[in-house]
Amino acid sequence: MSMEGLTGSLFEEETIPVNQQEWPMEKYGELMKERKFEEARAVELRWVLDQKIVSSRAEWYQMKPEERTNTVLEWFKNHQPDVLDPYDPRAPNGILRALWESVLKIIAKESGGKETVDLYSTLHSMPDSCYGIDAFLDVNGINFSLDVTLNRSKLDHKADMILRPDMLLGYDEEIDPIKVESVARIIVDRIKRRKKASTAQLVA
Asked: Residue 176, exposed/middle/buried by CB under 10 A (0-12, 13-18, 19+)?
């Protein structure tokens, strides 16, 4: 697998199938670049209303940012591109499939096969533009979001984890099973902590 000549966008598209949901990505991006944040938020609101993700402006703005993100991601579970099977994710470079398989293996071992792991694409769609989420894992209802990037110096992100090729590939630019397992274990540990916190909130 060669990284030579790849742009960030091409790397994303080789890693994750593009989600084909209609979304004015260029318009939203231009508004953000021009710092027209109110207009950009209006584009976001119009989209969630058009998709019937919420029923009213008031419902959307009453939500906390985390609640909005999760509400949108839940909608995307039912609106995936035909080329992506959440339980059999395939893309040209195989990076995310390798990570998904490793997460699934760890989860299955720890739960005795009682939990499922699905992978969903949001690439070039609303969560990508608004939340920086290119894809996300769903482990029995617990979402874990990913921002796929070639930028090694990127620090600012809204997704749960930045995923760079050097985190999963060896010096030969081939998938490194040891690196993949290491990242998968970090993801599983974070999901377990999130699940524990969610259970504690329900009990309280």
From this structure: middle
Separation of CA 50 from chain center? 22
* pLDDT average, residue stretch 37-46: 97
Check: CB of residue 96 under 8 Å from CB of residue 119: yes
Indicate the Cα dihedral angle 189, 199, 136, 167, nearest 10°: -10
Q: How far apart are CA 172 and CA 98, in angstroms?
A: 16
Residues 126, 47: Cα–Cα separation, whole Å: 8
pLDDT digits (tens, 9 = 90+) for 154-182: 766 789 999 999 999 999 999 999 999 99
Residue 65 has pLDDT above 70, yes or no: yes
To the nearest 10 degrees (0 to 180), the angle between helices 25-33 and 37-50 is: 160
In this structure, what are the phi and psi dihedrals at residue 116, rounded to the nearest 5 degrees?
Answer: -110, 155
